[in-house]
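Progress against Task 2.4 (sequence-to-structure conversion) is shown through the following example record, which the project officer requested during the mid-term review.
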Amino acid sequence: MSETTIRIPTPLRGFVGGRDQVAVPGATVREALAALTAGQESFHDRLFTAEGELRRFVNVYLGRDDVRRLGGLDATLPAGATLTLMVALAGG
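Structure tokens generated for the chain above:
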């Protein structure tokens, strides 16, 4: 199984020791994100709904493409892939 690099946005870096990217195993987007959040329920809950789907305000890109347009969480990752997490921020 190849490694995927996941770029982490600033608001989520506290879950990964402040790093801006993390390498994880995974053949699909779902597997890579599961590896990223393994053992961290609060991190997992930030990204996923109770049904296991990405939250509405969480976007994941494979290169320039939104994974929702590539098959969603079950999209296959090529060797050496880079995923970019993006989360919408709200405030007032």
